[in-house]
Amino acid sequence: MRHRPVLWHHRPGGRTGERARRALAHVAGTSSGGPLDRSLRVTLNFHPDRVLGATSVLTGLARDGAYRSQFETGTSNGGLGAHRGGARWRWEQRLFGRAYDDAAPAERPKYGALDHRRRRIGGAPRFGSAHLRLTEAVLDRSTFCFPDSVSEPTATGTADRFDLLPLVERFDARLRAGELGPAEGGVLDDYVEAHVHGPVELGTDVEAVVLDPSFRGTATEQQAWDLGVPVEWHEGRRLLLEDLQARPDLRGPHVVEVGRRVAAAGVLDAAILGRAALAGGEDPQDLKLLWHCIAVLGRPVGP
Fold it and tell me: Is the pTM of this model over 0.85?
C-alpha cells in the first residue's frame, strides 16, 4: 500500500493538492448541516495478512510508509472498478465534480468509513478484519456519503457540513422493521463511507493499527509492530461452523460449503480465513463472502 506522493501543498488541518482541494470544495457545496463530532475517527478496514505478489499488506505498508488506494494496487476487498472509465472512476467523477478525471493513481482519494458507531472492529468491517485508525486532523480533508458510493448516493458531507446521521437512523429503522433482506443491512452496510483526500502516511496520519485477536503471536502481529505505530486489538469475531450452516441465506449454500472446507476444528476466524487465502485452493470471491458471514454471525472473543 505504499507509494509516497511528493507534490503536496501543506496547510493547517491536512495536506492536499489542487485536485483534492477542488474535490473538497465541490462536496462542501453539495452538503448541508453543522460540523461532525471531532471525537469520531475515519478507519480504513483491510485484511492484514493478504498478499500482493510476494508481499503482505502489512509488509508493504511498512516498506512504503503510506496506504495506497485501489487505483494504485489494483486490488480491493470490494468491487474492482478502479480504472479509467470503470465504475469506481465514474462514481468519483460524479461525487467530486470531475476533480480527479486526469489525476495520477497516487493522487486519488483513499476509501474508508467514519466510525460513527464507535465500533472497536472499525467503521466498515465488510472490508477486512483489521483497520488503520486515522488522526483527528484527517477529518478536515475527508468527504463522506451515505450509503456507499456504489449506490450513487446524493447525500454527502464534510467535517464542517455533516448531516448524514438522520439517513443512517432511517436505515436502522428499516433494518429493525425487517424491511431489509439477509444479504443487506446491519454491520455490512450501515457505514458512512469516507474518502480521504491527500496521502495517508503512517508517521503523520495514523493513530493505531487495530487487529483481530486471532493474529496474536503470528507473523501478522510482528508485521504490525514493524509499522512503527501503536498496535491495538479489537474484540474479534469467531464463527462456529454450526452457526454458519444455520444461515445459508446470508451468502448462499456454496459459501457454507467453502466454510466447511476451510474451518479448523469447527471454527472460522480472520486468521483461519487468511491461511485459506494464502493456500490458494478457494476462489477469493468466495472467501470474501465467507468473511462477510464471519463479520455478521461471528461472536466476540475478547473484552
Answer: yes
